[in-house]
From TrEMBL:
EC number(s) recorded for this UniProt protein: 2.1.1.185
Protein name according to UniProt: 23S rRNA (Guanosine(2251)-2'-O)-methyltransferase
Entry coiled-coil feature ranges: none
SMART domains per UniProt: SpoU_sub_bind
Gene Ontology MF terms in the entry: RNA binding; RNA methyltransferase activity
């Protein structure tokens, strides 16, 4: 959402969780907007967080939120644009943590709910960074809302070409995995303790064939019901936490 409600430039985030995490994270918050009729502990918490950081709070009428999507919950913030992160920054994060690289590559997941759930799972699961392709994802504001603010803590690289990014990862010694129903190797048999990037694909078509060619190994999540596939965010959770399990046991 473009900033058309006041002077200055920036990005709008809305919804309780997105606003709360933006105030807690390192993103520069310019102003906080709260529906004046809201009277609950959430309002008090958000006002307290803003006050603690000397951020101006404006109490506004219901009409202020008329241009926001549903789910704004009567709270919004105007923040600085999302920090641009490059692949080299991801490598630095892994080195700083002293852990084998652990990245997630998202190929064309456009549903905000799925992408938000993927980001939340990745952040909670300790993924070092996520790589998204520009113009093939939902807007930053929508994703922030859907991820319940987790995007504020997960380094995010937006690239013009996923395949070029994958090639660079491979040149740095990162093994690239993807999940495919036709794969022979079960996901728990793969070594996820090494430097890895997991690729997940769009809801309808999955990972594009041109992207698959850059994957080193495809693994299978077995299914036993009449439905032959899992929701992409659920599949991501299974793979991420298998990597967590292996790394904690190593």
């Amino acid at each position: 959402m473009n900033d058309t409600r006041g002077k200055g430039t920036g990005q709008w985030l809305y919804g309780v969780n997105s606003v709360r995490e933006a105030l807690r994270a390192e993103r520069t918050v310019h102003e906080v907007y709260v529906y004046r009729e809201r009277t609950d502990r959430i309002k008090n918490e958000i006002v307290a967080l803003a006050t603690r950081s000397s951020i101006r709070v404006k109490f506004v009428d219901k009409a202020f939120f008329s241009g926001f999507p549903k789910g704004h919950q009567g709270v919004a913030v105007r923040v600085s644009p999302e920090k641009v992160v490059g692949l080299e920054d991801l490598f630095s994060i892994s080195r700083r943590k002293g852990e084998p690289p652990f990245y997630l590559i998202v190929d064309g997941v456009v549903d905000p709910g799925n992408l938000g759930a993927i980001i939340r799972t990745a952040e909670v699961g300790g993924v070092h960074g996520i790589i998204l392709q520009k113009r093939r994802i939902a807007s930053g504001e929508t994703v922030a809302k859907a991820s319940a603010g987790a995007i504020e803590y997960l380094p995010t690289v937006r690239v013009s070409n996923i395949k070029h990014a994958m090639r660079e990862l491979r040149e740095k010694g990162v093994t690239i995995y993807s999940a495919e129903a036709e794969a022979e190797e079960l996901y728990w048999a793969a070594d996820l303790t090494i430097p890895i990037a997991l690729v997940v694909g769009s809801e309808g078509k999955g990972i594009r064939p041109t992207v698959k060619r850059y994957c080193d190994l495809m693994v299978k999540i077995p299914v036993f019901g009449k439905i032959n596939s899992l929701n992409v965010s659920v599949a991501t959770g299974i793979l991420v936490y298998e990597a967590v399990r292996q790394r904690m046991s190593a």
